[in-house]
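From the methods appendix. Each design record in this collection lists the discretized structure first, followed by the designed amino acid sequence. Records were kept in a plain field format so they could be parsed without special tools. The example shown here is representative of the layout used throughout.

RECORD:
C-ALPHA CELLS (167 positions):
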C-alpha cells in the first residue's frame, strides 16, 4: 500500500505484514535477555539518605537558631532604646530645671547668708598688670597626629603621594 495515500475505500481493514514466527526456544531466549537482573540491595543509598536528611535538619536548626538570636537581640535593642530615650528626656528636663533655677540674686543671697561671704573692700583688691600683646595659638591636630604616628615606609609614601595629588 502506498504511504502517501492512507485513505481506504470500503469497510475492510488492510492486511498488515506479520513478522515471521520464530520457534518457541528463540522467543524464550529473547524474553530472558529483556529481563534485567535484580540488583542486590546495598546499605550505601540508605546511609546517604540518612546523612542527607540529618544534614538538611541540621541546616534548618542552624537557620532557626540564628533567627531566634536575631529576634532576641532585636527585643533587647528595643528595650535599651526605650530606656535610652527615657533617660535622655529626663536629662533634658533636669537641664531645663537647672537652667531655670539659677538666679544670680539668689546665688548672691545664699553666698552672703549661708556661706558668710561678702564683696571685697578696697584695701583687699590686688591689681595685676597684664601685657597688652594678645596672641592666640592655633593647633593643627592632624599635623601633630601625622608626625607622632609611627608609620611604616609604605604608609609614608602613600601619604606623600596623597599630599602631592591634593595640591
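DESIGN:
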Amino acid at each position: 500500500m502506498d504511504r502517501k495515500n492512507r485513505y481506504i475505500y470500503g469497510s475492510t481493514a488492510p492486511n498488515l505484514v506479520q513478522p515471521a514466527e520464530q520457534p518457541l526456544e528463540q522467543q524464550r531466549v529473547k524474553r530472558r535477555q529483556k529481563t534485567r537482573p535484580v540488583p542486590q540491595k546495598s546499605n550505601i543509598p540508605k546511609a546517604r539518605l540518612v546523612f542527607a536528611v540529618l544534614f538538611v535538619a541540621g541546616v534548618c536548626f542552624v537557620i532557626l537558631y540564628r533567627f531566634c538570636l536575631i529576634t532576641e537581640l532585636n527585643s533587647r535593642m528595643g528595650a535599651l532604646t526605650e530606656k535610652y530615650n527615657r533617660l535622655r528626656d529626663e536629662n533634658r528636663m533636669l537641664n531645663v530645671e537647672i537652667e531655670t533655677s539659677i538666679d544670680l540674686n539668689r546665688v548672691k543671697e545664699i553666698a552672703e547668708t549661708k556661706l558668710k561671704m561678702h564683696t571685697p573692700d578696697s584695701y583687699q583688691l590686688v591689681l595685676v598688670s597684664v601685657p597688652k600683646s594678645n596672641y592666640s595659638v592655633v593647633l593643627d591636630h592632624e599635623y601633630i597626629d601625622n608626625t607622632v604616628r609611627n608609620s611604616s615606609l609604605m604608609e609614608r609614601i602613600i601619604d606623600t603621594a596623597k599630599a602631592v595629588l591634593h595640591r
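APPENDIX NOTE: Residues 45-119 form one domain.
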